[in-house]
Specification:
Elements (H helix, E strand, L loop, with lengths): L42 H13 L4 H17 L1
Helix pairs in contact: 1-2
């Protein structure tokens, strides 16, 4: 049985170099036109979104905006 740990400096096998196809980081940030509005929500709803946002390391406003966007898109179909 060969329990030798491979040397990370040694080649593992044949290497194929692929062209970089990933976009630059600035293209990964969605740029949507937004409109500022003032709305009132129940305390329970906001607490839910804040709790879920914290659990997912996200913004609760973004979660609400995405929810509304998904709903609007679904209703347009």
């Amino acid at each position: 049985m060969n329990n030798k740990i491979p040397d990370p400096a040694e080649p593992i096998g044949e290497v194929t170099i692929v062209k970089d196809f990933l976009p630059p980081p600035e293209e990964l940030i969605p740029k949507k036109t937004t409109v500022r509005v003032t709305m009132e929500f129940t305390k329970e709803s906001i607490e839910f979104f804040k709790r879920e946002a914290k659990r997912n390391n996200a913004s609760y406003q973004t979660m609400i905006r995405n929810l509304v966007d998904i709903y609007a898109k679904q209703q347009q179909q």
